[in-house]
Amino acid sequence: MEVAAPVNRATLQIRNIDPLTSREELVEEIRLQWGIEESGEVEIKSIKAAPWGTQEAVVVLPESGVPSDERERRLRTGLTIASVRQLANVRRCYRCHMLGHVAARCTVACPGRELCRRCGSAEHSMKVLI
């Protein structure tokens, strides 16, 4: 078993991708133009058709592979030059839908949390065993 240190990852939105470009071709273009060694480091979360006849994708890759200069963030895909912008990685709680924390550390009093889940009484609360 191999243990590796965690890598900070960046989420990018790529727009104006050539409509004939496939997932594999997009990964190869990112690797070649931005100097990323392994194709396993580039993960395409989604790729979909855009309303103006091109495609747009959400890609996750190591922060070290993202060019720092805005001009270098352009990506040539087929016959088009795609624009790239970095998306913010923000945590969101699924209980209260507020930003900055997760449900395990949620301190917001959500409606119904103070009641027992089994009987609805406010005198006690049912402990959830996971």
Automatic annotation (TrEMBL):
It comes from the Eukaryota. The keyword Zinc-finger applies. Keywords: Metal-binding, Zinc, Zinc-finger. One of its GO terms (molecular function) is zinc ion binding. The keyword Zinc applies. Residues 91-106 form the CCHC-type domain. InterPro entries: Znf_CCHC, Znf_CCHC_sf. This is Uncharacterized protein LOC117211022. The lineage of its organism: Eukaryota, Metazoa, Ecdysozoa, Arthropoda, Hexapoda. The gene is LOC117211022.
